[in-house]
Amino acid sequence: MTKHIKPAILMLLFFTVLTGIAYPLAVTFSAQTLFPSQANGSLLGGKEHPVGSELIGQAFSRPEYFWGRPSATSPAPYNGGASGGSNQGPTNPALIDAVQARIKALRDSDPSHSEAVPADLVTASASGLDPHISPAAAAYQISRVARVRHMSPDSVRELVGRYTEPRQWGVLGEPRVNVLKLNLALDQRLK
What is the pTM of this model? Predict the structure, then answer.
């Protein structure tokens, strides 16, 4: 029996060191060496004062900023620990009321706007963390942001165009605008 216990204990120690220490260190070293920004959360705003991650949305509600997709996470919007949708169907009265309230807020923020509100400005994504909006959702907000910031709509439109990301590898997904990157660029313009 002891001839079986000694190899078992040695194998346990070997695999504990291999999978519990060596492998995590190798993966961490590789990630920090090859992909340092991604390994540290894809943070934006500088090392000293990061303002957020380009991978997780943030709640913007002031009129001088572009607003992102609503978030259904709780207890706070864009809570990375509670990722998930609301699971409300299209006939759910709570979803209908929430969408109508969001449409009203968008209309109240820019009463001169008569175009249809893009769906991604009034409905949450499946994760509740989406940092992107469609180019149509960004275009819908240009007049409000330009008016509040005392900028020409053309200069804001040009900035939106600069921060519109194409489809991934030219075929996956749709063109999109990262709201945090765009809002940081707007703030940089004022400095």
Answer: 0.79
